[in-house]
Amino acid sequence: MEILKLDNIDKYYGDNHALKGISFGVNKGEVVVILGPSGCGKSTTLRCINGLEAIQGGTMEILGTKIDENFKSWREIRQKVGMVFQSYELFNHLNVMQNIILGPLKVQKRTKDDAMDEARFWLEKVGLKDKENAYPRELSGGQKQRIAIVRSLCMNPEIMLFDEVTAALDPEIVREVLDVMLNLAKEGRTMLIVTHEMAFARAVADKVIFMDKGEIVEISTPEEFFVNPKTDRAKKFLNMFEFKK
């Protein structure tokens, strides 16, 4: 069952036609990875889905709610669609626990005990149960990103968006974040992931969307895309990740 559907979405930044008639659907429990060169519209697509960018043509349907360019009621949608950013977006003056429970307390009006219990559950699952009183400045990049994922999970989203969450991390700590995401995929969560980690994309995806210059060029299974891409643009993109002596 499709719980997210984009139909002919357009987005402009001035004269730049950033998204050109983007259309695809995501089923409940499906992991969709969006690949493509930098500047092709991958992150813009996620930001439109979460209402951080306004669409300027086409329609979306998110968890049964129809959305067009005049839609304004994003508050309720954002409670159901979590987003994790490349830059963590943690509040430096708050400790880990305070960062995590802020949304559940302020937006969902949950009790502090309830919010803290769930936060501790997820902190243990991502291997950071001893960091609840630490401040962001005391954490590594990988730890900050895992905290950002926990913060999103504690809002109990039905769809999770991940926007190049390992791009700012040192190579040796990328794996600790990807492992958390792999485990979420195994639990059957609905996820849209923008990444340049090709091995991870191949392992985690149920469906691959390849974009270039604001357009969707291919939609296929990871097996088809990585072994036998249909288009020259996709083949050229994948060749960028191969090294020959």
TrEMBL record:
Kindly give the PROSITE patterns that the UniProt entry links to this protein: ABC_TRANSPORTER_1, ABC_TRANSPORTER_2
Q: Where are the transmembrane segments?
A: none
Q: Which GO terms describe its molecular function?
A: ABC-type amino acid transporter activity; ATP binding; ATP hydrolysis activity
Signal sequence segment? none
UniProt superkingdom: Bacteria
Question: Mind telling me which Pfam families this protein's record contains?
Answer: ABC_tran
Q: Which residues form the ABC transporter domain?
A: 4-238
Name the InterPro entries on file. AAA+_ATPase (IPR003593), ABC_ATPase_HisP-typ (IPR030679), ABC_transporter-like_ATP-bd (IPR003439), ABC_transporter-like_CS (IPR017871), MetN_ABC_transporter-like (IPR050086), P-loop_NTPase (IPR027417)
The alphabetical list of record keywords is: ATP-binding, Nucleotide-binding, Transport
Family classification: Belongs to the ABC transporter superfamily.
Report the protein's function.
Answer: Most probably involved, with PEB1, in a binding-protein-dependent transport system for an amino acid. Probably responsible for energy coupling to the transport system.
- Protein name, please? Probable ABC transporter ATP-binding protein PEB1C
